Amino acid sequence: AMTSIGDLPEDVLVELLSLLPARELLRTCRLVCSQWRYVVDLNTLWKRKCQRDGFYRQSYDRSISDWKIFYMLCHMKKNLLKNPRAEENFQHWTLDANEGDKWKIEDLPGAHGSHMSDPRVHKYFVTSYGPCFKSQLITLDKEGYWNQLMDEIRPEITVKDWYAARFDCGCRYELTVRLLSKDYIVLEEFHPEPVVIEQWSDAQWREISHTFQNYPAGVRYIWFQHGGHDTQYWAGWYGVRVTNSSITIGPPT
Predict the structure, then answer these.
(1) Based on the domain organization, do 169 and 233 belong to the same domain?
(2) What is the domain range of residue 71?
(3) pLDDT tens, 25-72?
(4) Residue 203 phi/psi, 5° resolution?
């Protein structure tokens, strides 16, 4: 007769333990005994958790070798940029350049503007006739991405930003994203050519996206900067509009 939970068949123990939060599995259950440590380390347990939490696709079966890392990356995935939609004024942003009539926050769609397809976005940051740039520095270990993970797994880092012009004024948009070492040395950079939108455009919101893959080991920080100015040099806030920026880290595809 079965006398303890330790007498359960392995597949039943996997099913039971997969119901627990990952934090409890790694910090508590794994320390109970050698059998539980073995089960917690099984790929099948973490694959089951992926199935339970909606991270699993049958097409992943041949490409994923470590389901625990895959699960952790899916579970931790979030926007690492804070206040991306101008809902907290300029909190969390560093204003690197604030010329002309300076940065301003406006409500969508704004004068001579257009709505976004994402109903969660209600505000945007807008530039003036002088250079306006703002940035954030993300410290990866503070966000839960430990050094060994970044050096050995090198999960994908995806950057997205949305920008738009007014219908009645041209503007210039720029984006720079850098992967930095612990000493703030640039290991990899995404800095596309500036986008110039001519006067009398459609004023539609456009997305720019880039995914860092197979970058060098040693990434400890991500630096994000965007901004620009108008091209007519009109007093006020006729420059490029930006909002809904994001940086996410996910499993390699």
Answers:
(1) yes
(2) 5-75
(3) 998 988 888 888 999 999 999 999 999 999 988 878 888 889 999 999
(4) 60, 20
Q: What is the pTM of this model?
A: 0.91
What tokens does 180 get?
């930095």
Query: CATH code at 53?
Result: 1.20.1280.50
Q: What is the 3-state secondary structure (H, E, C) of the chain?
A: CCCCHHHCCHHHHHHHHCCCCHHHHHHCHHHCCHHHHHHHCCHHHHHHHHHHHCCCCHHHCCCCCCHHHHHHHHHHCCCCCCCCCCCCCCCCCEEEEECCCCCEEEECCCCCCCCCCCCCCCEEEECCCCCEEEEEEEECHHHCCCHHHHHHHCCEEEEEEEEECCCCCCEEEEEEEEEECCCCCEEEEECCCCEEECCCCCCCCEEEEEEECCCCCCCCEEEEEEEEEECCCCCCCCCCEEEEEEEEEECCC
Same domain, 125 and 62: no
Specify the number of domains making up the chain.
2
Residue pLDDT, tens place only, 216-250: 999 999 999 999 999 999 999 999 999 999 999 99
Q: Which residues contact 140 (CB under 8 A, 6 or more apart)?
A: 150, 219, 220, 221, 222
* Angle in degrees, 0-180, between the axes of helices 10-17 and 43-53, rounded to the nearest 10: 40
* CATH code for the domain of 242: 2.60.120.260
